[in-house]
Amino acid sequence: MEKDPTDYNLITYVWISIVSIAGIFVNFLEVNRHCMSWSKTPDLLIDATIAPILGIFMFYLCDSVGMPTVMTAGLIGLFSTFGTRGMYILRRNLIERIIQQRGNHEHDLD
Asked: What's the rounded Cα separation, in Å, for the pair 109 and 97?
């Protein structure tokens, strides 16, 4: 039988979000354990926004193949953490390219 997102109750989505954000928060504390800086807070907020979306996506994948609940929870945390790290790398590279292109165009005007 085909499932859709309305087949799950709200508590399921809340738990997925909590597991996703917990993974992000633990990663944030681990990375910043030597020097806690408030300048990293925007990264944490962006990751905490993206992580539940990635977690729900992973939940649907695990549920579609009939994976056990405990393994699903672990994969949700891992996928959320590594997915947001990948998004961070893409975001950083995009910003660097934009800065480089603006720098190159400024020299073209001379």
From this structure: 19
Task: Quote the mean pLDDT of the chain.
Answer: 82
Residue range 65-95, pLDDT digits in tens? 999 988 998 888 888 888 888 888 888 899 8
**DSSP letter at 68?**
-
pLDDT for residue 110 is more than 50: no
Tokens 């709200």: give the residue: 10
How far apart CA 57 and CA 79 sit, in angstroms, is 9
Residues shown for the chain: 110
Q: 13, 10, 11, 36: which is closest to 25 by C-alpha?
A: 36
Locate 106 and state its tokens.
């400024």
Alpha helices (H) in 36-68, listed in sequence order = 41-64
Tokens 């390219």: give the residue. 97
Taking Cα atoms as reference points, which of 82, 62, 81 lies closest to residue 72? 62
Token pair 């030597």: residue: 34
Q: Which residues contact 51 (CB under 8 A, 6 or more apart)?
A: 17, 20, 21, 23, 24, 80, 81, 83, 84
